[in-house]
Every structure is written in structure tokens, then in C-alpha cells.
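Dear colleagues,

For the upcoming journal club I promised to circulate an example of a predicted protein-ligand complex. I picked one with nicotinamide-adenine-dinucleotide because it came up in last month's discussion. The inputs are reproduced below in full, followed by the predicted structure.
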Amino acid sequence: PADIGLLPESLRTEYEKLVEDVRRYRFAYYNEDNPLVSDAEFDVLYSRLEEIEALHPGIVSHDSPTQEVGGEVSAAFSPVTHLSRMYSLEDVFSLEEVTAWADKAAANAAIQAPGERLRWLCEVKIDGLAINLLYRNGKLVRAATRGDGTTGEDVTHNVLTIKDIPVQLSGSGWPAEVEIRGEIFIPSQAFAEFNAALLEAGKAQLANPRNAAAGSLRQKDPAETAKRPLRMFVHGIGAREGLASTTQSETYELLRSWGLPVSPYSRVVDSIEQVLAYIEENGAHRHDLLHEIDGIVVKTDSFEIQRALGFTSRVPRWSVAYKYPPEEVHTELLDIQVQV
Ligand code: NAD
């Protein structure tokens, strides 16, 4: 069992404070859609927590923030158990770490899925919030937030107001039950316009597109959600029994044919050099995209390799998120009145 007493006295107070702060900041971010610190500040605390735990593995309890997918289920919504679990992503902050991750994934894939073609699916990391759409016989029957990864919040009525999301899939070949995962976001331009209108009306502006999207989706009144310029791009698939595709990129093409909104920015490449080039290109143009991004997500494209590499309690081993360095640190967020 985890024992914090294993920590040297000098670290114990720091560790306990980190756990408490990370929990508090996560609650404000996920449950109240109202961050108390910037993402960059949060990431520093979280990385320090991981660092201390890596040095002293005996202290890691199952409810440490590093073992959990952040976010609880608010009592304002009905709980929904996802058919298949939703995960977070492992963050890295340097190109060297991306390369190290890819080398390790490649080595493990060669052992655990020998002969399977290794390719990298590069995607932009959309700064919004995750959604899980359950389609039964092609019909949207439920939409839920990620929550703690096992149980999310039922936001079906709100999701039905988002025009990007089809209520009925088109085409054919959908499994009897399929979970489509993606990111709900507010496009940068729509966000600027929405804020300008708030300013004109003498109302408090929204702090950033991510929290605005989360706050807009998690409204109690769907009519309120309908007024917000929400969009969605698919970036994954959960339960999918009977689906014939063998790679994630091929699956995106299938989903596109069913009328689902798939990101136009993804690219499949063969080498790490090409992955790094993708990171650099998008870093240089990050503000020219339709939406805000906070990094790049790299995935192994083959489902066989994904299955072989598997998951930790919190993240897939077949994917990594590279975070761009912060452009500015908004400590003043504390002073902004966030209205969602
Ligand atoms: P994450 O946001 O780093 O990564 C996981 C999520 O990325 C997925 O759930 C998915 O919704 C999303 N995503 C976007 N594009 C994707 C793509 N192409 N493929 C797959 N997934 C994609 O992890 P997290 O656990 O949700 O949260 C950590 C993030 O939240 C960090 O960036 C952290 O800074 C921020 N955060 C900030 C505060 C704060 O107080 N400011 C508090 C908690 C968390």
C-alpha cells in the first residue's frame, strides 16, 4: 500500500500541497469550467507531482491525481457509464521526449505486434473538451462528457443543438453500437466575435475558447447551448465491435463517409523526422487554424499495434501529446470574471 511516510520530511509538505492544489485546480477547471491558474502553471505543478512520484514510487496511491483522468461528474447532469473507457493523454514538453516516446513505442510494437506496419498518425491537439457519442443502429442515442473516464455527464440534449453532429449517420457499414469520440470547440473567429458582442452588451467576456466551449456545453438549458458557436471534430473511436477497419486513419475516412466531422489537419507519416516536421509546421501556423490548439497528438495508426501497446490507468501507451511552450502566462486569469 502507498505510504507517504516513505518520503523524506523535506518533500512531504511539498508533495501534500501539490496533491491538494492539483485537485483544487482540476475541480475548478473541469467541474466549474473556471480555471484558477493558467494551463502552463498547472502543467508545472502536475509535472513536479509526477517527478516526486517517479523518484518515490512507494507513495503513489490509487487516488493520486496522476492515476486519475481528471474531472468528476457534476450532480447537475445524469451520470453515464461509457461502453469503453475514455483516457487522457501523456504530455511531453520537448521534441527529445517525443522521439524517446516514439522509439520506445516502435521497439515494443516490433516485439508485441511483429510484422505489423508501423506508421504515425499526427493530429493537432484541439483545445476543447472531449465528447463521447453513442450511435445505435446509426442513430445518436446519447452524448456524454469524459468525466472521470469511466462515468461522464449526460449532455445529449445540449449536443443535439450542435449542427456538426449528425443525429442519423449516413452511408452504411456502421456497427450496431459505436462510440464516436471527439472534441467540442469554439472556432477562434467565432470566439472573438462572441466576446466582442458580450463587450458591446456590457457583459463579462469569456476567458478562453476551451473553457467557453466547456461552459457552453455544460449548460442546464439546451436553448442556451444552442446560442453558442460550438463545433466538433472526431479524434477517436470507443466501442466498435464489428468494425472492419484496421487503422485509425482509415477509420476516419469511414466516419467521414457516415457524415461525421473529421479534422482536416491529420496526416499519416512513416518516420519520426516527419512527425517532428509536422510539429514544427503546425507550431509556426498554430494561429491560422480554425481553432486553438495546445499541442500535437501522435498516435500509432495501426489498431493491432494500439491493442498490443495498451493503456496505463490514465493514458494510452500508443499515443503522446506534445505541448507547445506557452506563449504567455496569464496569471491575471485570477482577476477575470469568467462568465459561461
Ligand atoms: P489533455 O487535455 O492534455 O489530453 C487529453 C484530451 O485531449 C482528450 O481527452 C481529448 O479530449 C483531447 N484531444 C484534443 N485533440 C485530440 C486529438 N487529436 N486526439 C486525442 N485527444 C485529443 O488531458 P486532460 O487530462 O484533459 O487535461 C490536462 C490538460 O488540462 C492540460 O493541458 C492542463 O494544462 C489542463 N488543465 C488545466 C487546469 C487549470 O487549472 N488551468 C486544470 C486541469 C487541467
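Two points we might discuss: The chain has a mean pLDDT of 93. The chain has two domains: 4-67, 79-330.

See you all on Thursday,
B. R.
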